[in-house]
Amino acid sequence: MTRELWKGNEAIAEAAVRAGLEAYFGYPITPQTEILEYLSKRMPELGRAFVQAESELGAINMVYGAACAGVRVMSTSSSPGVSLMMEGLSYIAGTEIPAVLVNVMRGGPGLGNIAPSQGDYNQAVHGGGHGDYQPIVLAPASVQEAIDLMGLSFDLAEKYRAICMVILDGSVGQMMEPAQMPEMRPIQRANWDWATDGKMGKRPRRILSSIYLDPVQEEKLNLRLLTRWKSIQANEVRYKEYYLDDAEYVVIGFGTAGRVALSAVRQARQKGIKVGLLRPVTVSPFPAGVIEQLAGRVEAFLVTEMNSGQMLEDVRLAVKGRVPVEFYGRMGGVVPFPDEILHEIERMASSKLSVDANPREAWLERMHPA
Which residues are within 8 A (CB) of 227 and not within 5 positions of it... i.e. 6 or more apart? Predict the structure, then answer.
């Protein structure tokens, strides 16, 4: 197979098609509109369902209906649009059905701008709709990785009857890179024993709902979801590691921030600083175990994000106060340059750091002195 030049958003769309996407429902919003535009032509060509809904609320509820029927279904949006989908996502989680959602993140809060950001981390990993549930969240750092994770997202959603979100900032969605597409998978509808697929008279009726009026039954659902999540945590953690074998310092970043950090780590290595990079691919489930292991042998961590330090808190929980954790972030759609992160690596390596320091407050003081 040959590599071709693909734009991130269009690559995601084609990868979903080749993964067996049967139905797509979405609404245009920058910087992810190219996904919808691409699928508006591609899906009808293949005799598959495409609907531009009247809103993000309409789109996610169409996803809900198709997922109940056992269809491999997806929607895509960007930050404000995903916020509008939260109620529908909670219904999908409560009904225990598989669905995929792609969020090409932009600057915020509010309407914000159309520049790349990672400000939706907490929404995806710790927030979402109401109730007790946790989605699987994948975070690609390149066009090729986005392609690869699309097929995985559907497989994981169906394996665990869960929501799988793919979060990427606008940089990955808009950039063009050489990438290789997988072969087209045939659509093979699984024989789900829960799907409302219309076989009336041949078996008992199947009814799907997220309504559990009896608190005891609601608690049973919550425990079932939690048990399933424990299995996901045990089996589906994914990450990339670079130069960690002899590292004395570790940078942690996901998506574009992690990709930029890798350039800084390589420059620091050339200067003799023993630093490595851990880039989470699943930010939910989070690779806390590997961070906990690293905390037993390295001197400090530097977390870098395109937000005000949302993943930072997950890192600090994993480190458990054993070594210092530093932070460097850019917000509002600003992408950090490698030399910015290199400067932070050099500062970390040459300073006496305290485990008791608040990394976010120290970063804010450096960024915006009083």
Answer: none
Residue 303 near residue 275 (C-beta atoms within 8 A): no
Query: What is the tens place of the pLDDT at every residue in 71-126?
Result: 999 999 999 999 999 999 999 999 999 999 999 999 999 999 999 999 999 999 99
Nearest 5°: phi and psi at 279? -115, 105
Tell me: pLDDT of 213 over 90.
yes
Distance between CA atoms of 367 and 361, rounded to whole angstroms? 10
**Cα torsion for 246, 250, 256, 260, to the nearest 10°?**
-70
Residues 16 and 47 both lie in one domain: yes
Whether the CB-CB separation of 76 and 164 falls below 8 Å is answered with: no
Q: Which domain holds residue 59?
A: 4-235
Whether the model pTM is above 0.90: yes
Verify that 69 and 215 share a domain, yes or no.
yes
CA distances to 20, 120, 215 from 128, in Å: 26, 10, 22
190 exposure class (CB count in 10 Å sphere: 0-12, 13-18, 19+): exposed
Q: Which residues contact 232 (CB under 8 A, 6 or more apart)?
A: 136, 156, 160, 162, 285
CA angle 42, 47, 48 (to 5 degrees): 70
Residue at a domain's end among 187, 202, 235: 235
